[in-house]
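Database export, one record per block. Field names are fixed; values are copied verbatim from the stored entry.
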Amino acid sequence: MRRLNRRKTLSLVKELDAFPKVPESYVETSASGGTVSLIAFTTMALLTIMEFSVYQDTWMKYEYEVDKDFSSKLRINIDITVAMKCQYVGADVLDLAETMVASADGLVYEPAIFDLSPQQREWQRMLQLFQSRLQEEHSLQDVVFKSVFKSASTALPPREDDSSQPPDACRIRGHLYVNKVAGNFHITVGKAIPHPRGHAHLAALVNHDSYNFSHRIDHLSFGELVPGIINPLDGTEKIALDHNQMFQYFITIVPTKLQTYKISADTHQFAVTERERVINHAAGSHGVSGIFMKYDLSSLMVTVTEEHMPFWQFFVRLCGIVGGIFSTTDHGNDVRQKANLSDFLI
């Protein structure tokens, strides 16, 4: 009785088999079937390679939240060359809280030659070309984020020629820490001095004919300095056509947390609008000659995270590719075999 019950149970289980085996005597190979199998295996291999390349790639995920950090300081990284001698210009920051940050707190004035060497000019040309492409194709920013610390340095290379030309410009470089409120970083005539109502510059001691605010921005960024990041004003060069000329940059700063597989940094992205005009009081164009960078901070913070496809998802997609192609071609073979069997019976 036990053997009989066991046989009935096995018979019932066999009837539930959704994948019946075809006897080898009924299986017939053909050239057309081999061709279909070859195409199927080739397609599987190609799709597997493509899927593996997708698995190796990463993408950037952007998340937005309100910036609740108001107590920390904002770092401004500066490397600007002005076509005036260092004793004639002064740089500082004045924010909305009327707090003045002098250049002596972190900036260095270096005599320099304003005209670039051939190698430096080529570097600037390539940087400006990349800036124009970055403005047209915003997806390149993801490539920049993923290539930090791996790409070449974006700093101005040193001169390769030993020029005997005397310095005719001033390179102002370094960094300043300011309050996280709107402010104005500016470079104008004369050194800055404290004033009860703000600050002033000793411009009266400088000859008006020596005014020349042609300038080159080799680097300007906010927050932690991250090598490899291209900022909107890097490589900018402006030539003054008049002694009394004002250059204005209106900057909106967005706090950014960058988290990739190579780096985790608190930096800032920014957008900028440029304006320049000649100061002519008789024509109603008032102001002060110089370079003015008025910045304001966004209330939103962006978190940029580099993400990668998990292995389980890659495995499921791979199984779907192999199983889908195999079942499709196997069904085609079954249809063809049934057609051959019908022809045989007829």
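Remark 1: The first strand starts at residue 58 and ends at 66.
Remark 2: The helical segments are 2-15, 31-56, 118-136, 140-146, 311-345.
End of record.
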